[in-house]
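Practice problem: Cyclic-di-AMP receptor
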Amino acid sequence: MKLVLAIVSNDDSSVVSSSLNKENFQVTRLATTGGFLRAGNTTLIIGVEDDRVDACLEVIGNECKKRTEVVPSTASYDIGRYASFPVEVQVGGATVFILDVAQFHKL
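Answer key — structure tokens:
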């Protein structure tokens, strides 16, 4: 058995969770924050049998597409002087960790 930890954008989390549920994966969702943009993310925790890991990754990959967004950025030019300008950044996609599970108990 494997433990899949998938960090996805909040924008993708509902669609990914629904698609995983349709494929009979049980998903636990955690609200998380981090990264360069300090944007909200969702960490999905999924217990997966070894032979279904590829199917789980396929669902996540199909629903979490990378995209470009324009976000405000602030630069400091002098003490107390700031300028705001838009910056294009790539968002979306998923970061996935797959861990071995030594034991699993459902009580």
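Discussion: The beta strands are 2-9, 27-34, 39-48, 66-78, 81-92, 94-100. Students who identified this feature from the tokens alone can consider the problem solved.
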